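Changelog note: in this version the structure field was regenerated for every chain. One regenerated record is shown below for reference.
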Amino acid sequence: MVLQGVAILGLPFMHAQGAYIALSAALGLGTALVYPTFLAVLAAHTHPQQRSEAVGVFRLWRDLGYAIGALATGLIADRFGITASILAIGGVTVLSGIVVWLRMPSERKCLEPEDVKPLLVKPNVRVVDVRSPEEYASGHLPDAINVPLAELLERARSWSPKERIITVCAKGGGRSAQAAQVLRDMGFGRTWWLCGGTVGWR
């Protein structure tokens, strides 16, 4: 989005054909990068049962932005001219990219086993093993409860948002990372997943 915004900001000042083509190519590249990145983040940080809802919310705001943006840029163009309108579009696009960069969830919100051990003796700490019951039965962390990933959304509704939650799977970073993001989306601010999972713990 930042690349898109920078390209848009440069368009009013380009008079040579080659420079205009280069900026147009940069704008196209930035646009081409937005949707694959969005879909990758959506897949990595959204529970499968929430993905259609997340896409719907995204499309609502995107389409609403089209309408509001068209009206706003038309008003700016009428009042200040077409150059001011283009610069406003570019500025908003750059600002949007910066906001996304600052707010996008970190890919690494995990705790090492040595960081988890002191937490296990503290109150308001819940260890959630999101593997299948069969995997859980083969070995798990002390005091970990078994809540398969598919059941997490429903089961977590009864938990206190003040709890500190550590999610665990087999090797860490797959189901446990996804479960931690589901919980964060539900309002559980102090949620992590175990680096290395049960295998790393052993």
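Spot check on this record: The chain has a mean pLDDT of 88. The first strand starts at residue 110 and ends at 111.
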